[in-house]
Amino acid sequence: MKQFRLISLALIAILLCSAFTPKEKEKKTEGVYLFGIAASFNDSVVYFTPIQLMDSVKLEKTFLPKRSDYAYQLKNQIEKATGKSDYTCMIYFNKSKVKLEKEALKVKSKYQKSQLKLEEIAAETFSFKKPADEE
């Protein structure tokens, strides 16, 4: 009878302890944050996009799939807006928005130090789109 009580108390203690264990942290937002910079050696204006969340994109290890497609999207937008085709576009990305904001500040400050004019592309004017999968 004592063993039954001890076993039942032990089971109740285990149940109570497992009921109050901390739950796993909720998963962070799936996707990738990114922004782009477009610069030219022939122009004193550097264009940049605001940071955008691409929720349908997943990194492959630490690499952004089809990164060049995002750069071409930005390049096409700049060509359409300015009529100039000599811009080089760079895409920066990170899973963490905070880390990417810090990176954006660093990049922008480097361009400001070199006396170039920074011009933001409005989010209403341009937003990155997930490239179509090649099948």
Kindly summarize this structure in a few lines.
With 135 residues, the protein is of the alpha+beta class. It has a domain of 89 residues. The chain contains three helices and five strands.
Task: Describe the protein's topology.
Layout: H1 2-19, E1 32-39, E2 45-48, E3 52-54, H2 67-82, E4 88-94, H3 97-113, E5 117-120
Parallel strand pairs: 2-5
Antiparallel strand pairs: 1-2, 1-3, 1-4
Task: Give an overview of the whole structure.
This protein is an alpha+beta fold. The chain has a domain of 89 residues. The chain is built from 3 helices and 5 strands, in the order αβββαβαβ. Strands 1, 2, 3, 4 and 5 form a 5-stranded mixed beta sheet that branches. A hairpin with a 5-residue loop joins strand 1 and strand 2. The longest helix is centred in the N-terminal third of the chain and has 18 residues. The protein is elongated and about 90 Å long. 16% of the residues are buried. The model has no long low-confidence stretch (mean pLDDT 85).
